[in-house]
Amino acid sequence: MRFDAAVLRAYEDPFTVEEVVLHTGPAEDEVLVRIAGSGMCRTDLAVRRSAGRSPLPAVLGHEGAGVVVETGGPATGLSPGDHVVLSFDSCGRCRSCLGASPAYCDTFAALNLFGGRPGNADRFTDAAGGALAPRWFGQSSFAAYALVPARNAVRVDPSLPLELLGPLGCGFLTGAGAVLNSFGAGPGDTVVVLGAGAVGLAAVMAAAAAGAVTVAVDRHPERLALAEEFGAAPVHGDSPGLPDRVRRLTDGGARYALDTTGSVRLINDALRGLRPMGRLGLVARLHTALALEPGTLDRGRSISHICEGDAVPALMVPRLTGLWRAGRFPFDRLIRTYPLAEVNEAERDCEAGRVVKPVLVP
């Protein structure tokens, strides 16, 4: 099977849209999906800074959504014609997976970042037969089609705008899941979100939907304006006395804080803005040592990393589409679509902050 895909051949090079070849159909636990849209996530772009650890050439993309065109059999639980959102891969057998925490799968890195499932290497090549890296996050969805494990395909209502749903499988799932799952925020709780990108704004929307008092911190006025529309009190990230301002807006300190920036300064500010026994969750990858200032963890405050919003995608994706239908999670307002052929323009706009969430449409 031949189709177009965006291939990244070298860490410094632009994507090239070219013909690729899928040499086999789905195995008994897989489905072939015609992609309707695939979100571009910071994790895709971070491959360029991965110090050679992520194999290239590769087809990236891990926020796909589309229509099932073929299945490996009845064990997949899916049928041709089903609309699905694709999420991260997991083994389904380790202690974390069996404990409903697939984002902490023992083989998460191997399955999603550094090689995929055994036997994938020879199934996917470029038009000349040259090797492409095994599936990125079980998807490689910057393409017209994706062959995916049925485990990470979530069936959705066909009346939903399918081409926009892909980011619910990672970026939006991460932000909303951190608030709703990891924190369990509810009415009367106080949440501060640092960084009003795709993950942060999803967290803001989820916090508002949960009835929490929310503060959003960012440097971009247009993103702070969006956060305010979604129900958060906006605070510029360079404001003097940021922790004091957060404490004033949250009646003495936030119960929860979510950092999406990886900024050591903002992480320390967030800790100082927490109430006693408050919790800070980190979702961004840290690129420097995290030096905590004296007193930031006093009085029962805690800090932890949150992966994929502690979500079970098969439960979380329907929850988020339900909130969207109710007008309480307007994620579509964050999206700008681009034809797959404009993948490099989408990347430039994303890196420059001109768009919150690019979605590539084959």
From TrEMBL:
GO molecular function ontology, one term from the record: oxidoreductase activity
Bilayer-spanning residue ranges: 164-185, 191-217
Span of the signal peptide: none
Listed cofactors: Zn(2+)
Keywords: Membrane, Metal-binding, Oxidoreductase, Transmembrane, Transmembrane helix, Zinc
Matches recorded under Gene3D superfamilies: Medium-chain alcohol dehydrogenases, catalytic domain (3.90.180.10), NAD(P)-binding Rossmann-like Domain (3.40.50.720)
Residue span(s) of domain Enoyl reductase (ER): 9-360
PROSITE patterns named among the record's database cross-references: ADH_ZINC (PS00059)
Family per similarity comment: Belongs to the zinc-containing alcohol dehydrogenase family.
UniProt-recorded name of the protein: Alcohol dehydrogenase
Source organism of this protein record: Streptomyces violaceoruber
